[in-house]
Amino acid sequence: FLLMIRLITAEWFKIEHPRRLLLLMLSPALVTAFIGWFAGHHDGIFLDIAAWQEVWQTILFFWSCFAFSFFIAVLAARLNGIEHSNNSWRMMLTLPLRPYHLFFAKLSLEWGLLFFANIMMILVYSLAFLVSSHSSMTGYGFDMALVKSFFLLPFVMLPVLLIQHALSWFLTNTRFPVIFGNICSLASLPVSSYFQDKGWLLYPWDYGLRFVHDTLDLKMGEKIFPVSQGSFLAFALILFLVASAAVTVVLKQRDIH
Prior knowledge:
This protein is mainly alpha-helical and about 260 residues long. Helices cover about 75% and strands about 0% of the residues. The protein has 11 helices and 2 strands, in the order ααααααααααββα. A two-stranded antiparallel ribbon has the order 1-2. A hairpin with a 2-residue loop joins β1 and β2 (about 225). About 35% of the residues are buried. Residues about 135-140 have low confidence and may be disordered.
């Protein structure tokens, strides 16, 4: 455990311009705050309670459907691109490290940054509730269930993070994982609509959309099997752990890269 902490810290200090990266992770929350402020204060716009709630839900649903997956692809390519661009994989061979140590240290840092960005989005949503409830702006009901769903989003999307991280790790051309991730993110809504029964389970990029909307029920023939968010979260974590174990086996059989 202490080794992983040291590796994660080392990976953070290897990043060029870490403040810019933090600003990048803050950008969704800042843009969201601006949109919410503009919608609530613009003279030409009047929002009743239902419309005001819809503004925030639309923003947060867009984050879960597309933007979160996009940031996963960018972060994975950025952190692995450090080693590819500097060709520093050979140097790693001189260190007392197993390949999977470095692999999961990078993945942990990526997940931490995504979790930070997600928390900032939740804080903006909560702050909007506090501001609107103590001013003349049209208020809206604080949706605690929605906040809970978004808090768990980084855990549900762990399978996507593992896929993107593995692609960026094994491929020297980090542009391909970013393009691949963007295409898969944009396709999540059509996949969700076309494979409404159970086929979407094979498409992890659809997990965030399904989880936040709480449309997780599986249909097999005429039977419908209800799936709770808690059960699906457990499924996503088990899927991530099984895939991680498979990646660990592969990495144990090869050098750092």
